[in-house]
Amino acid sequence: MTELKDYWQNYIDGEWVDGGAGRIEVIDPASGKVLATHALADARDVDFAVQAARQVHRSGELSGLRPVDRGRMVQAMGRFLLEKIDEIAPVLSLEQGKPLWEARVEITGAARYFEYYGNQAETLEGRSIPLGRNYFDFTTYEPYGVSAQIIPWNYPLEMAARSLSAALATGNACVIKSPELTPLSQAWFALAAEAAGLPSGAVNILCGYGREAGAALAGHPQVNQVVFTGSVPTGVAVAKAAALNVVPCVLELGGKSAAILHDDADLDAFVNDVRWGIYFNAGQTCSAMSRVIVHESRHDDLVDRVAEMAETLSVGPGIDRAEFGANMGAMVSLQQRDRAEIMVTEAINAGANLATGGRRPKDYSGAFLQPTVLTDVTPDMAIAREEIFGPVLSVIPFRDDEEAIEIANSTQYGLVGGVFTSDLDRAMRAARRIRAGQVFVNEWYAGGVETPFGGYGKSGYGREKGREALLNYVQTKNVAIRLR
Ligand code: NAD
To answer: What does the pLDDT read at residue 3?
Structure first.
């Protein structure tokens, strides 16, 4: 049994502090038990954190460092997370519901962002623009100053690491609004910043309600750049708040991503892609494979094999699932589970059929839902258009390539997409036409921290990951010099 301390605080200007809005209970979704309480920030706390970050920015303590030195600090934060993985993983597993081994995968992924962006710190170079013999002109990239980062609960460490590492590497001071369902594991970012020697105020972490602390941060007049990862409606509210202050905003929102499975694809390999694509993190992944669009000739075979795979997954408390394997944990909350379950019921009422799952496992009362496969889904059904954010796969048959692309592109989202075929020409044609920021060919989630990620359509704008992301955190200055 992992013992957690009872009360966790916010971290502002290098100090652990209480919250003006009191405390929030953090619940283990597998058991429904209270794990601990966490300080809840109000608008005043947000203001303190922004002022602390602003002070660091103005002092030049971070932005004035030689980039290689700043990069080394960022890399050290990643190494710190790996050193502490045995401490962090149970906390993340308990507060979020994911298997312990998945928590370790997430922490390793979070550390990887610090490695990558720490390495990139010294690669962001300006250029010189010729203006004739009487001038010398150059560009530089300067950090915005205070970067506000609003984080969701599904991968709280990886999502925060993604923004924090790139923002720090480029010399910004950061204020993180941690997710109110999963705030505990964020504490290790503060410890990592201290261990790496970052100045106090460079990393501030507050848990608070979105409508209060989140809104106060997104609309704070001294925030210079906002990164939001979460749902579409909240993203719209955050973007409006940023627009009122005329500051740039990155929106990483939801998805309803589809894999197109052609008749010439390797079905055995694909079943493994489905396992990761929709059942990892109990399907609470923005880039989840929530739809499979399958050639009609492979439909029945695919459904049989995927249902069989889904039934092998042992569902239960994440903290008991330490070993990498065929298992799945709880969803993050009863509310999220109930929402997914209702969407499945409504799909059945609309004409879909359950190939497997769709129910709560009878051994547990927590936020569990069996790995689910729905067939007879049509593209116009809500289940095919709306994000479920749960372990629910919709299977939709197609007749020809044209129809497959049309179905894939028939939602308001455009985060990722996939095509599975042994015909490279066909894959390339599909890759060009799938309306999404990232296309996977023959492997769902192919790519990594190095590859840019972000949405088309309602999935958002701006890119995180890869070198593209660095440009979200800097502004270009041009200096033109008249020579005498
Ligand atoms: P959410 O939008 O409810 O909350 C996200 C964050 O925003 C939380 O920290 C919340 O407190 C805060 N928030 C809520 N209201 C706010 C407001 N008015 N102003 C400022 N902040 C506010 O989303 P969620 O339920 O936590 O996360 C699930 C969603 O996130 C899904 O739609 C998923 O697809 C998306 N997501 C996207 C990505 C991506 O990279 N594209 C990654 C992870 C999750």
So the answer is: 78
The answer, yes or no, to whether residue 334 has pLDDT greater than 80, is yes
Give Cα 389 distance to the centre of its chain: 12
To 10 degrees, the CA torsion angle through 184, 121, 106, 415? 110
Active-site residue flag, 252: yes
Q: What is the pLDDT of residue 171?
A: 98
CA–CA distance, 294 with 302 (Å, rounded to integer): 8
- Does residue 389 contact residue 336 with C-beta atoms inside 8 Å? yes
The CATH H-level (homologous superfamily) assignment of domain 257-448 is: Aldehyde Dehydrogenase; Chain A, domain 2 (3.40.309.10)
Confidence of residue 40 (pLDDT cuts 50, 70, 90): very high
pTM of the entire predicted model: 0.97
**pLDDT score for 241:** 98
- The domain locations on the chain are 7-252, 257-448
pLDDT at 120: 97
SS3 label, residue 347 = helix
Residue 209 Cα: closest atom of ligand 1: 11
**Over 90: is that where the pLDDT of 361 sits?**
yes
DSSP string, 249-289: EEEE----EEEEE-TTS-HHHHHHHHHHHHHGGGG--TT-E
Give which of 206, 243, 221, 69 is closest to 145, Cα–Cα. Answer: 221
Choosing from 252, 341, 387, 464, the catalytic residue is 252
Pocket lining for ligand 1, CB < 6 angstroms: 150-154, 159, 177, 179-180, 210-211, 214-215, 218, 229-231, 234, 237-238, 252-255, 286, 387, 389, 415, 460
Superfamily of domain 7-252 in the CATH hierarchy: Aldehyde Dehydrogenase; Chain A, domain 1 (3.40.605.10)
Residues 6+ apart with CB under 8 A from 38: 7, 8, 9, 23, 24, 26, 183, 184, 207
* CA-closest residue to ligand 1 atom 21: 214
* Residue 194 falls in the annotated catalytic set: no
378 DSSP assignment: -
